Amino acid sequence: MYLPDAGFEVERTDRYNTGKEEAKIVATRTFGQHEEIRACQAMLASLTKEEEARLERDFSVIFLPKWKCYCLLAGPARFVNHDCNANAEFTRFTNGIFLTAQRDIALGEEITVFYGSNYFGVNNAECMCQSCETNKRGHFAPADGIPP
Predict the structure, then answer these.
(1) What's the domain count of the chain?
(2) What are 93-120's pLDDT values in tens digits?
(3) Whether residue 15 is found in the same domain as residue 60
(4) CB–CB of 87/78 below 8 Å?
(5) How far is CA 68 from CA 50, 58, 61, 63, in A?
(6) What per-residue confidence (pLDDT) applies to 65?
(7) C-beta of residue 58 within 8 angstroms of C-beta of residue 122
(8) Same domain, 139 and 92
(9) Looking at residue 30, which CATH number applies to its domain?
(10) Distance CA 49, CA 51 (A)
(11) Are 40 and 7 in contact (CB under 8 A)?
(12) What are the start-end ranges of the H helices in the chain?
């Protein structure tokens, strides 16, 4: 991650109203569609039910259907935020994940993945991603449900 050719860096973000310091992954070079971003990876550690309950809203925890359990991400990929129109996706390897670009990613663009359709409430009604803000969906939807 600290290598000049890693292709990304971790920056602070104030997009989310959590009251805590938050981070994001930003591209330090361009990436083409389907290009692997292997330096942005994380190892996976399965969680017990007790650990899962304690870390319920920790965004470093993901559910892996193949393993049928929640796993803690340990590595820079844990800082990748959600977007409903993500530009990357998680790709599995033996004991971890890395990122693969789903579309071209520009220099300076935040690298994001799609966490799931109901990760932020039913139909992501509580989602605060950039796409939801731009399209007035999720957390940014009008109270009456009718788009402007």
Answers:
(1) 2
(2) 888 899 999 999 999 999 999 988 888 8
(3) yes
(4) no
(5) 15, 18, 13, 7
(6) 64
(7) no
(8) no
(9) 2.170.270.10
(10) 6
(11) yes
(12) 49-54, 130-135
